[in-house]
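Collaboration report, partner site 2.

Our partner group contributed sequences for two proteins of shared interest, and the home lab folded both. The records are reproduced in the order in which they were received, starting with the first partner submission.
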Amino acid sequence: MKILTPKTRREFLRTTLAIGAGALLAPRFGALAAQSPAPAAPSLRAQKLTWAGVRLQLDSGSLFLDPLINKDVWGDGLKDPMIPVGGASGDRFVLVTHRHPDHCDPEAIRQALGSDGTLVYAAQTGIPNVSGVKMRAAAMYEPVLLGDFTATAVPAVDGYGDPQVSWIVTAGGRRIIHCGDTLWHGAWWHIGRQYGPFDAAFLPINGAKFSWRKPVTDVPAVMTAEQAVAVAVVVGARLVVPIHYGVVGAEGYAEDIHAVDELRHFARQRHVDIEILKPGDWVAWRA
């Protein structure tokens, strides 16, 4: 019989343990690999509503951004139909970018929320003037869990100088940014680095000029189509869906009537995908 020295005994034990561990662990890991489910397909759906409104839809609930159903806000200046927002099932949430009536419509908010939904606003924009609903304030840059949605308020710049934010929402395997009626500003690079890329960016494009604020400047108080394309490049948006355009003839409010054509032009130049939707249409996600 061969006598094992301390050195050969240690080598024998190491070899035996390694073989035993391989025999025990390999089948288990192989079985786990075989049973691991494939990643779930993205389930978020996104619908363009009237004006700047967007609806995000999951099986578990709905989240609305800046819904509008009040025809009196723009009168005959806006020809688009008012898309209904009531009757949603599951969890219901509304986010507002700011308190102007074309973005914070009390009746649209109440209908979208039903009896138990929650209106979420950025604390810096002030409490919305909406009665009869539950409200929740959110701090800038601080993610808020809303059912299966996660929402984060990030900077925006308002044409009046009033407080305004943009919203980033992640849900169902997608991430979007909704930018109300912001101007161009310098925080886009921070937003892109911290939160990008985005599956879609809902961006204002009409470059509107106001004449009711004195003295009149003749400077756009809303982002232009060219600036919207630049935003998409900076933040890493795979798709731009234009919002906040289509008002013609409103007193003291003049938008760029060629905004959609200009969006197509600048998007081609910078190789940015765009999707022009009518109110009520759903986004066709890019791969």
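Second partner submission, folded after the first:
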Amino acid sequence: MLARFLLNSLTGILITFLLIGGVYAVTDSRAVLDLPPAVLAMVLSLLLGLGVGTVNCVLMGLYPLWDVAWSVITRPLFLASGVLFLYEDLPPLAQDILWFNPLMHITGLMRSGFYPSYTAAYVSVTYVLATSLILFALGLILMGRFHRDILNR
């Protein structure tokens, strides 16, 4: 699991550098990249991916149907993560619901690293970090408990 995490992390980081570097090289962009929020958003996304991946590793090992269910459940996640719209432009009810999506916080933090005038007041690094670490701990506990059952399937 650690090897898969490292491989996917390094691949994602390399693609990010190539994509952002390519966009800055090809276009006449005057965007000012603020590295601390962008790097923090990348680290938080890696931690969240590790936590969700650990829980999914156990669930997919125990319940093969979970793979299909997870695929269906996460389809609308692209829309609910604030990639196509700003959190501030949403109605208050949608803001109250989507605030609990950790990806919305990561997207807002990354956006604040690329747009200096964008202030993501709703972002809670503590919430994303706590969610990631709780999911990771839960996944490790479940893996410790059920690893023999998963390997025997």
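Feedback sent to the partner group on the second submission included the following. The chain is about 70% helix and 0% strand. The longest helix spans residues 35-62.
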